[in-house]
């Protein structure tokens, strides 16, 4: 296997190589050093540029370089701005899930309203001119306020009180009309009040109980809803009770009348003599025993007929003998 052996160059060779490298560097840098000097000599040898006098512009006046001073008559006067319109707004709960918005302004300009909840989230918005009275449906469980401004994003001109929709929804009820009992006279005049849950009936400041309530003269009954209820339909009734007295209703006495004549009575007659009692027999014993055993003649005749047709002991013996003989005869005929 051949082995490669490196040998160091002689000193003379290394010196020649170093001189060649220095000479090459000088040859490369010398042209770069000579170019700026040649340019400077060229500029020094070039004649100056001559500009005709008619083409030279005169130097400006220093007074012309200053800004013009403002004239006192040229200052514009400020224009007065129009005053914002005055507005009013209210927001009240009208139903379980809606509110009533009422707004108005003293000018005929178009305004914007905005309804927000307690967190500032917008629930409804719109515009109106002059005045507005609208029902706005909203979600329950929040308290809402309304603002009125000239633009949807402008400053509020008026803000309403909060309308609370967090309370339970009121129950809708209808008040029945009361009845007025007005007979003759005044001692029995009365207002008959029905019993309706959630409704109170009053005459002035007096609360009427359910049932009959005495009254007099002209009476106005007003129905109102109790807390937690909302009422619809008529709520007021008026009646004027009559004060005419009752007519005289006492019964008039009847005129006396002549007594009717009594019917004629028959003169008393003598009793006929009693018939002698019948003779005693076997079927009719004498004395009181027979009278007690027979109530009427018809019953006595029926008992007599029954006793006449009843069989005696001899008849019973003959019937038994005939039955025995018939049985023996039947047995003898059928034995063979």
Task: State the gist of this model.
The protein is α+β, with helices and mostly antiparallel strands and 336 residues long.
Throw out a few tags for this protein.
alpha+beta, 336 residues, 24% helix, 17 strands, Immunoglobulin-like, four-stranded antiparallel β-sheet
Largest sheet: 5 strands, antiparallel
Percent of sequence in beta strands: 25-35%
Structural class: alpha+beta
Rg from Cα? 72 Å
Quick one: overall form?
elongated
Question: What does the model show?
Answer:
- The protein is 24% helix and 27% strand.
- The protein is α+β, with helices and mostly antiparallel strands and 336 residues long.
- The strands form five sheets. Strands 3, 4, 6, 7 and 8 form a five-stranded antiparallel beta sheet that branches. A four-stranded antiparallel beta sheet has the order 13-12-15-17, with no helix packed on it. Strands 1-2-5 form a three-stranded antiparallel beta sheet, with no helix packed on it.
- Mean pLDDT is 76; it is low at 276-294.
